[in-house]
Amino acid sequence: MEQEGVIKFDLRFTAGAPVPGDVITELNKWRNILWQHALIGQDPCRYDGYGFGNISRRIGAQDAAIGRRAFVISGTQTGHLKQLDNHHYAHVTAYNADSNQVVADGPIRPSSESMTHGVIYDLDQEIKIVLHVHSPDIWRTAIAQGIPVSRASVEYGTPEMSREVLRLFAETDAREQGIFSMGGHEDGIVAFANSADAAGNRLLTALACSKR
Ligand SMILES: [Zn+2]
């Protein structure tokens, strides 16, 4: 199986101050809920013991040009932590899927799935929150639930994944549903919306439906 948590893009990282605590309040509230459902976490029995799940929110101007879009995202390998604070979030200030480069600063390196988050922000200005979780239950029932699924040949965090997200938005109702399953990334699910509550509730609904 592919290894979880390995950064596959060219990261230009500068150590720096954390974002103000209020920037992550809503996001962190949902991080706690998702962690309690084991949709984010770290488990010695799963993924060779690597942490899983990462969450972000857009910051700055909604209509910022490509290359100037920014978001705050949970730091790499923070899944084991029960509670996060602003020292566990990185500030992504630029990203480019074509050159596979991410520019970030903060007290911690950004999640290895930062590029996937960035590509989703590029697809729709209304999207303000992206949540990536791992759920065997949702993943196994995605097709039965009508959730769009990315191609199994596409690995997470790669330029191919960025192109695959574009395809999903063009060819499926992923945008309207606010969720898709990552066919090539075991148990990987991505939800997105214009608010943390909407994205988080979409995941909880999919989780509930997976158990019917
Ligand atoms: Zn993942």
Explain what you see.
This protein is α+β, with helices and mostly antiparallel strands and 212 residues long. The chain has one domain (10-210): Class II aldolase/adducin N-terminal domain (L-fuculose-1-phosphate Aldolase, 3-Layer(aba) Sandwich). Helices cover 30% and strands 24% of the residues. The chain has six helices and ten strands. The protein has an eight-stranded mixed beta sheet with strand order 1-7-6-5-4-8-10-9, with helices on both faces. A two-stranded antiparallel sheet has the order 2-3. Helix 2 packs parallel to helix 4 (159-171) and helix 3 (136-145) crosses helix 6. The longest helix has 15 residues, at 196-210. The protein is globular and about 45 Å long. The two termini are 29 Å apart. It binds zinc ion. The site of zinc ion has 7 residues, from strand 8.
Count of DSSP E strands?
A: 10
Morphology: globular
- Give the spatial strand order of the biggest sheet: 1-7-6-5-4-8-10-9
Multimerization state: single chain
Query: What's the end-to-end separation, in Å?
Result: 29 Å
**Ligands bound, unique:** zinc ion
Main beta sheet strand tally, sense and closure: 8 strands, mixed
The helix/strand order is: EHEEEEEEHEHHHEEH
Number of helical stretches of at least 4 residues: 6
Strand fraction: 15-25%
Return the domain count: 1
What is the CATH C-level name?
A: Alpha Beta
Describe the protein's topology.
Blueprint: E1 10-15, H1 25-36, E2 41-42, E3 51-52, E4 54-59, E5 70-74, E6 89-96, E7 101-106, H2 114-123, E8 129-134, H3 136-145, H4 159-171, H5 174-177, E9 179-181, E10 188-193, H6 196-210
Parallel strand pairs: 1-7
Antiparallel strand pairs: 2-3, 4-5, 4-8, 5-6, 6-7, 8-10, 9-10
The site of zinc ion has 7 residues, from strand 8.
